[in-house]
Design goal:
Length: 298
């Protein structure tokens, strides 16, 4: 007589156990987790001994999914779980380029319609944010006219975007970008003359500078090259205040840093709720600024 094997373990009629997946194959190898016999084709190497395919699959379901420091899923370059492939960054660059080409083809009509403008007479009638055209707070961030302007902004977006997108995740990265653009527009609207126009993605790009500093600090990275580059850009900004809207740059920088801080310093418990509420708070403050300025101009 032959002794019984573990519960659920198939056993050959002549004695040696057989693989639970291939009843015709005798084997003396057992899974270290469930102790079922497995043949050489089914066994999977483990840290200690071998495991059966079912136990490996069950173990995989219990492994915690990899997350970024902001809580987003880690993705591969193909979009599956591992770097992001910079999908959002590429889309933003493509959108900016498309609008720039539209401006070249159509001309000033597009600029007059979507530029950041407090309140002024355009085409014989009043126009601007104070006249209810709030969309200008965002559309201006996608407008460019001079080739050098879009070249520098898209270079900055391409340099800062992919690593931030990988570390924050697509949705959080896009949120930081758009909130930074809103922050730059809000400060420009608050301080600039009501008939002074402003356009360009600079506010959003400076927001990515601020976000990169916060994320780099969180990861204990060497920030000296990034700080040097930011200082150079700020010097260029304030040396050309007659041509560059410094308010949009500063506003985007501050808001981008605050938004990123809300992302990477959120508590692990209720992290998403904290991030959503924090960003909502930032947006509420910016909306308050816009409402205050509108009341002045109205």
């Amino acid at each position: 007589m032959h002794g019984d094997g573990p519960a659920g373990s198939p056993q050959g009629p002549a004695g040696p156990p057989v693989c639970y997946r291939h009843p015709g194959r005798e084997t003396h190898i057992r899974c270290t987790r469930c102790e079922r016999p497995v043949c050489t084709d089914c066994m999977v190497s483990a840290s200690v001994g071998f495991q059966c395919p079912d136990c490996v699959q069950a173990g995989g379901r219990t492994v915690r999914e990899a997350r970024t420091i902001a809580g987003a899923r880690v993705r591969n370059t193909d979009g599956s779980a591992g770097a992001t492939g910079a999908v959002v960054t590429k889309t933003l660059i493509g959108l900016n380029l498309a609008v720039w080409i539209l401006v070249l083809v159509v001309g000033d009509k597009v600029v007059d319609r979507f530029i950041l403008l407090g309140r002024a007479v355009v085409g014989g009638q009043w126009a601007g944010i104070a006249e209810g055209e709030w969309y200008r707070l965002f559309t201006a961030a996608f407008l460019h006219q001079e080739p050098w302007h879009i070249l520098f902004n898209m270079f900055g977006l391409w340099m800062l975007g992919p690593p931030l997108e990988a570390m924050l995740g697509r949705v959080r990265f896009l949120t930081v970008y758009l909130v930074s653009a809103l922050g730059g527009s809000a400060l420009s609207y608050l301080i600039a003359a009501q008939n002074q126009g402003s356009l360009g993605a600079s506010g959003a790009v400076f927001g990515l500078f601020g976000a990169a500093l916060v994320v780099g600090r969180r990861m204990n990275a060497d920030l000296r090259p990034l700080i040097a580059l930011l200082v150079i850009n700020l010097v260029i900004t304030f040396l050309n205040v007659s041509r560059i809207d410094w308010r949009a740059h500063v506003g985007g920088l501050v808001v981008g840093a605050l938004a990123a801080a809300c992302m990477v310093h959120a508590p692990k418990n209720h992290r998403v709720a904290f991030q959503v509420l924090s960003i909502a708070g930032i947006v509420a403050v910016l909306v308050g600024i816009v409402l205050f300025r509108t009341s002045q101009l109205s």
